[in-house]
Amino acid sequence: MTFMVVDFMKFTKLLSQQEVFDKDTFKSDDKMGHAHLNLQPLVSASRLKQFVQVSSGETTLRMVVPDSDNCLARESSICCINGEVVQSVWLRLCAVESGEIELKVKLINPSR
C-alpha cells in the first residue's frame, strides 16, 4: 500500500480501513473480515525523518504498539529505507473468529 500526503498539517487522525476477501474461481468472493490502521504515526515518523535528515541505509524511526487506534497483532516498526518511510504491520482481522494480514505501508514524498 502506498500513500501520498501533500499537506501533513491537515491530518490529525488518518485511518486506513482494509476489507479482506478470499478469491473464489466459480462463485463470488467472500468477505473474510476488516482491519484498520492509524496512519498518524507514519506521518509523524516522516516529519521526524525530515528533521534528522535521514536519507540512506535503513534507520528505525519509531515503534508502534497495538492499541485501540489500530488492529495491530504485534508491535510494528516504522523505518526509513533509502529515503522512503515504510511501516511493516501485521493486522488482526475484526468481525471474524481469527485471521491476520501482513502489509507494508509506504509514505512517498510528493516532491519526488
Structure report:
- This protein has one domain.
- Helices cover 12% and strands 44% of the residues.
- The protein has 1 helix and 7 strands.
- Keywords: Calcium, GTPase activation, Lipid-binding, Membrane, Metal-binding.
- It is found in: Membrane.
Helix share, percent? 10-25%
- Given the C-alpha coordinates, what overall shape results? elongated
Main structural class? mainly beta
- Strands of the widest sheet, in order across it, are 1-7-6-5-4
The secondary-structure element order is EEEHEEEE
Q: Determine the mean pLDDT.
A: 77
Annotation, overall tally of beta strands: 7
Spans with pLDDT under 50 lasting ≥5 residues?
none
> How far is the first residue's CA from the last residue's CA?
18 Å
Number of helices: 1
Residue fraction in strands: 35-45%
User: Structurally, how many domains make up the residues?
Assistant: 1
Rg, please? Answer: 16 Å
The biggest sheet amounts to:
5 strands, mixed
Q: Helix and strand layout, with pairings?
A:
Blueprint: E1 2-4, E2 15-21, E3 31-38, H1 40-52, E4 58-64, E5 76-81, E6 84-92, E7 100-108
Parallel strand pairs: 1-7
Antiparallel strand pairs: 2-3, 4-5, 5-6, 6-7
Keywords: Calcium, GTPase activation, Lipid-binding, Membrane, Metal-binding
InterPro entries: C2_domain_sf, CAR1-11
Main location: membrane
In short:
The chain has one helix at 40-52; strands spanning 2-4, 15-21, 31-38, 58-64, 76-81, 84-92, 100-108.
